Amino acid sequence: MAEHESAQARLDKVVMLIASNIVAEVCSLYLRRRDGSLELVATEGLNPGAVHNTHLKPGEGLVGLVAEQAEPKQFADAQHHPAFSYRPETGEEAYHSFVGVPILRGGHTIGVLTVQNRTMRQYGDEEVEALQTTAMVIAETLAAGGIVSDEVTAETRRDSNARFMGQPISESVALGHVVLHEPRIVVTRLIAEDVDLERRRLQQAIEELTGQIDDMMERGDLARAGEHHEVLEAFRMFAHDHGWRRRLDEALATGLTAEAAVQRVRNDTRARMLRMPDPRFRDRLHDIDDLSNRLLRFLSGGTETAATGSCPRDAIVIARTMGPAELLDYDRQRLRGLVLEEGGVNSHVAIVRRALGIAAITQCKGVLEAVEQGDAAIVDAQGGELHLRPTQEVISAYSDKVRFQARKQAQYAALRNVPAMTLDDQRVGLHINAGLLFDLPHLDQSGADGIGLFRTELQFMISSTFPRLDQQTRLYKSILDSAGKRPVVFRSLDVGGDKVIPYFRAGAEENPALGWRAIRMALDRPALFRTQIRALLRAAQGRELRVMLPMISDVSEFETARGLIDRELTILKKHGRTEPTKLMVGAMIEVPALLWQLDSLLPLADFVSVGSNDLVQFLFAADRGNDRVSGRFDALSPAALRAFRQIVLAADRHGTPLTLCGEMAGRPLEAMALVGLGFRSISMAPASVGPVKAMVLSLDAENLRRRLDTLLEERKTSLREDLKRFAAETGVQI
To answer: How many Å apart are CA 548 and CA 609, to the nearest integer?
Structure first.
């Protein structure tokens, strides 16, 4: 009760001070309630008995008009305005002139501040601006808490119990607390002591911001995730916009600090855009937020992400978009979940996420506008849901789900040492995808047959400088030591596209996924490629070594790369070093052009591996990192499955070992289809080995092959539902 009275006393003091400073006979404060109505919570000049007893419906009266349009309004003779709503309990019939300003938070009106006088008068610009500044101070105070009632408080904070839908990129559930990848800067100093100094600070921050954006555009780092190019173009447009800069300067002129001016313009701009009928303008709201947040970080000197600070032990990281290297900056012991507003389910950050074993969803639109640092959160990566500030009932339900999941994992663990054998005695090799040392314990934990794909580029992506020969050698030796007798397939350096090495600038490209990357870069920079091969050969002394070449699009590329490898092997022998007991060089089939070169390639390769992520995206010309198109195709469509079957048949003809290491191998339904097509070796994220093994143990592969042969002749659309029916009819665990 004492806290309630203290809060009310503060509000009463606020309206009294405003009335005296602006020379007004009345100053009143209205706040929005849960139901959208406006409640009079404090007044100087009106009848005190009206406080908490006067309520205006949404849009009602002049106060409702200010709230609805989210902009200042003034009237010399308010009582004769068509929108005027007379409330006898207030005693306002004696007052004629009226000015009201919205109290904005995140572009939303959470209240209205008004002043009134008996005389008919027009208020000056300086008086209105002073009221706007005061309203901004009130908004920040309200956000910090201490308001008069629970009904009113609810609308000053972001909504509780919020639920968002997204696309799952894992199969787990995580309970924790929100960490904003790019922390918001809280503006605490609003009133400037030296306006000229604040203007210089803002100008310097804008120059730093525009310089950073221009530099990113020139470097081509913009391709790291989905629509990043579009985002940067929007940033650059806003950052160079004269109207935006003019509004910032006008806000500074009212006596605000540089930070408060940015906050004021952000609120005003968001308020206008929220009320525009064209949805394209509303879609740009997050651009305004991102630009303002970046500018505030430059002003505060804090330009780093949350990964550089101390995260809670149950961190749920939320970001608009993120590159794989940025995700790897986080302490994986503290990271429970990841939520992205943008990005495809097969983007490289999604792949890295699966390697980390955390719950994650993407395409979770609008979440950054609704979340605060430290909010309780639940990431349901099975259903593609995010629950913010969940109720105790929701927490209890998900706690039960986590316990059920743990029991399910225990069942999978019981299968760890059981060979993956189908009901008709077809042995299927289940391997894991890896990329860093911390992936190695997953080999034993999952019971995998080996490492089907070791992504060597991750070491390069997390290093601040190019890894030296001895550093690479130590890593590769550690991997082989940990694997023991189990096979390890090292993929040579595959960078470019959305996998950016911070110390290596490749130049801007219009279509980086189709550009200078992987084996193309290696053949143009043979010293880089040969250094890696030399490290692999030294690490594999006295052991078998398997090297896989990515992004082969022509047989000649494989032959050239194989020649460079043989040259390094010759040098190794010449220096009397122990060579590998066996060297196997394979090719990734991920460029559609290879589908018509298989009879030329397969006799030359010791093995081949289908990179289904890239192969499918190239087949459908749909960027898997762009959420607008990544969901437009299905890997279980006839076109994709026929391409996979063509590869299986060709590998059988030439007796070339074949595997598949794309993300679809880790989903039981898709993995079932692959086994039915004839794949007998697949590689996946470690957490997927258990569910896929359970599927294999319950599958009759020959029965499925016959069904697939029929379906691929009959169907023109995705076979997904047909395969689900097959699993249900035959008891396959998917």
So the answer is: 8
Per-residue pLDDT tens digits for 423-472: 999 999 999 998 877 678 888 888 899 999 999 987 777 676 788 999 99
What whole-number distance in Å separates Cα of residue 225 and Cα of residue 338? Answer: 15
Q: Are 617 and 590 in contact, with CB atoms under 8 Å apart?
A: no
Here the tokens at position 372 are 């605060």
- CB contact at 8 A, 340 and 362: yes
Specify whether the CB–CB gap between 340 and 167 falls below 8 A. no
Torsion of CA 341, 346, 352, 356, to 10 degrees: 80
Whether 734 contacts 721, CB under 8 Å: no
User: What span, in angstroms and rounded, lies between the C-alpha atoms of 701 and 677?
Assistant: 9
Percent of the chain scoring above 90 in pLDDT: 40
| pLDDT band, very low/low/confident/very high, at 35 (cuts 50, 70, 90) | confident
Tokens at residue 286, please? 């997050």
Amino acid at 31: L
CB 170 within 8 A of CB 359: yes
Q: Alpha-carbon distance 236 to 218, whole Å? A: 12
pLDDT cut 70: percent of the chain above it: 83
Distance CA(167)–CA(361), nearest Å, equals 5
Please report the pLDDT score of residue 708 as a whole number. 96
CA pair distance 495, 536, nearest whole angstrom: 18
**Residue ranges with strand state E in 62-204:** 73-75, 97-105, 108-117, 162-165, 167-168, 173-180
Q: What is the pLDDT of residues 197-222, one digit of tens each?
A: 988 998 888 888 777 777 665 544 44
pLDDT at 670 over 70: yes
Arithmetic mean of pLDDT, 507-517: 71
Tell me if 273 sits within 8 A of 107, measured CB to CB.
yes
Q: How far apart are CA 664 and CA 617, in angstroms?
A: 12
The DSSP letter of residue 161 is S
pLDDT of residue 504: 64
What distance, in Å, lies between the first and last C-alpha atoms of the chain?
Answer: 57
Write out the H or E segment, with its range, that includes residue 216. helix 195-219
Question: What is the three-class DSSP state of 142?
Answer: helix
Q: How far apart are CA 264 and CA 283, in angstroms?
A: 20
Q: What distances in angstroms separate CA 172 from CA 360, 396, 411, 716, 722, one per listed residue?
A: 8, 16, 15, 33, 26
Choose the weakest-confidence range: 81-90, 504-513, 543-552, 677-686.
504-513
Q: What are the catalytic residues?
A: 348, 661
Beta bridge pairs of residue 555: none
451 three-class SS: strand
Asked if residues 369 and 447 have their Cβ atoms less than 8 Å apart, the reply is no
Question: In this structure, what DSSP letter does residue 732 have?
Answer: -
Whole-number pLDDT of residue 33: 86
For 452, the enclosing helix (H) or strand (E) is strand 451-455
